[in-house]
Amino acid sequence: MGYKICKQTDERIVLQTTGGIVDFIFGAVMAAIGAVIMSLGWFNYQDTGEIIMSLVFLLLGSCFLIPALRRNRVIVDVTNKQFVKTKSWFGITTNKEIITNNGLSLLEMSGATSGEVNALFDNQKQVSHHYRLKFYSYPEWNLSMRGFSTMLDVALFIERHFDTDLAMVVQHKRHKFSAIGLLKNHQITPLPNDSTVKEVGFQEIRVASTRGGMVRQWAVPISLILWAIMTSGFLLYLSMLEGFTSIPFAIQQIIAFIFVSGLSYLIMNNCVSTRLKIDHGNLIVKTSLFGARKYPLSEVIGVVNVAKITYLVTRQGSEQLAYKIPTKYSYAIHSWLMPYLKR
Q1: How many Cβ atoms sit within 10 Å of the Cβ of residue 38?
Q2: Do the Cβ atoms of 324 and 297 come closer than 8 Å?
Q3: What CA–CA distance (Å, rounded) separates 176 from 169?
Q4: Is 232 helix (H, G, I), strand (E, B) or coil?
Q5: Alpha helices in 171-309, H assignment, sequence order
Q6: Is 284 left (phi over 0), alpha (psi -120 to 50) or beta?
Q7: Cβ distance 142 to 128 under 8 Å?
Q8: Which pTM value belongs to this model?
Q9: Handedness of CA 232, 233, 234, 239 (dihedral sign)
């Protein structure tokens, strides 16, 4: 269970560990089990008068019930220049920790993955991505975040209003969270110009969305599209041979065309290469067949590889550029952007 933003204003941001639908269902089941066990203890006492066994049932039920009613919060307060972390049970605060502005020397962002071994042998299993904010303070805090965008929003909010430095951990090495700091050893990494990252025009590069370059990126999509075409063609041929007349043959062809076209668009749009282009003081990011996002270069911080995902990081948010490409490519893309960024 990680923190997510439940409320944000210009003066305050509130993080809470309320989970998603899975956490809600789990909590509801735990609470129901606890309530049932506690009720058994109560009725047992009413029927037999045995206090000890009833207390055992009540304690066992509480073990199930109480975790479902726990809430942790972190409040970033700009007015008082402090961070407040609370733990509450049944809505009652039981523990409270405060860090003042002067007590925070560094805020560190990091990411990790889990489940890669299982996913390697079972394609149905997902790789989980985890993100964390570490407060170098007294007391020291480690907050698990719900996603990269949440972690970035909180970090940038703290950067704007508090006197502290930001850092990003890439491959177990800490980098200062700035255009120069995100370089590898503060040195420019040359653009590889291979099938994964390639300069395709004036102030424009192309980034393959997955590891292995353009060939691997398009191998699966093309195979799926060919499968859809062959399947549709076979069904049309079979229906024509069997004299299927419930639906006119022309309508069948139109349906097959729409099916193949729609599936092809979805597959190609999901696997299209990302393009980055510098144009009149803006960075244009194209990650789909149609449409692009535009970021002022003054708002762009750089490119990082966190939890094996390559992100473009800006003060307006983040953009996923590629998944599971080597870190050297993120350094190269960031180096390519460096001459245009505010340092």
Answers
A1: 19
A2: no
A3: 9
A4: helix
A5: 213-241, 249-271
A6: beta
A7: no
A8: 0.72
A9: positive
Residue 78 structure tokens: 């700009």
Q: Which sign, positive or negative, has the C-alpha torsion 23, 24, 25, 29?
A: positive
DSSP string covering 12-53, please? EEEEE----HHHHHHHHHHHHHHHHHHHHHHHHHHHH--HHH
Closest of 12, 340, 311 to residue 177, by C-alpha: 311
Retrieve residue 286's tokens.
């194209």
Instruction: Say how far apart CA 108 and CA 166 lie, in whole Å.
Output: 6
State the Cα–Cα distance between residues 335 and 179, nearest whole angstrom.
9
* CA nearest to 168, candidates 180, 176, 160: 176
In the three-class reduction of DSSP (H, G, I as helix; E, B as strand; rest coil), residue 171 is classed as coil
| Residues 156, 147: Cα–Cα separation, whole Å | 15
Q: Which of 3, 311, 306 is CA-nearest to residue 145?
A: 3
Computed on alpha carbons and rounded to an integer, the radius of gyration of the chain in Å comes to: 27
Q: Which structure tokens are listed for 151?
A: 């972690």
- Residue pair 68/35 in contact (Cβ under 8 Å)? The answer is no
pLDDT single digits (tens) 148-199: 999 999 999 999 999 999 999 998 899 999 999 999 988 999 998 888 888 8
